[in-house]
């Protein structure tokens, strides 16, 4: 487990050196799976720009060195399709990106990673899926930015009760497992609590609001999150277990 607040400070290390820093995470708001890391390459590459990396490319998550190790060269990343920060990632862009890296499509198959349980298993599946692509054209994606949602108001039964301040992500399958809510400025005796994604009713993008299934009282009764331990994987795992029980 890892907190988004920690992950967005991780460096990104290619097979031949550092290539940037993780600036943001894009997840699917249907199944809450991390789809991309946004890399800021400004300090490492000439005319540095924002590019995206899929968890499919990961070799290692080194929490000691705070680095994401990826199975590509700096040149491969430099030549990859760039993104427009001010526009959402389209499925058409994803197709171009996946073809460039030779990845199989995660959206073809029954699971969060297509026919596989782990993203890296899609690393060499492109050729095997070319025939399927002709039959099953991809639909719209549901990608959302953690950095954007950070600060969204949390509404418990139509009553504003806090705001999103962090996310907890499972490093094995890159599932977004928890939303961290700060209710200290909203409720008497408020605190930071963890919500499982099962507790989220929907996300209202136009109103910048996350609607949850809990009441004020139930939200207040959830265990308090210890800010000082959000870089402790064992502690984060215990938070996930508590939230699942509460949900």
What does this structure look like?
By secondary structure, this protein is α+β, with helices and mostly antiparallel strands. Helices cover 20% and strands 31% of the residues. The chain contains 7 helices and 14 strands. The chain has helices at 4-7, 74-78, 91-101, 130-135, 146-149, 216-221, 233-246, and strands at residues 2-3, 11-14, 17-28, 34-40, 50-53, 58-62, 67-70, 143-145, 153-156, 159-169, 176-182, 192-196, 200-204, 209-212. Strands 1, 9, 10, 11, 12, 13 and 14 form a 7-stranded mixed β-sheet that branches. Strands 2, 3, 4, 5, 6, 7 and 8 form a 7-stranded mixed β-sheet that branches. A hairpin with a 4-residue loop joins strand 13 and strand 14. The radius of gyration is 19 Å and the shape is globular.
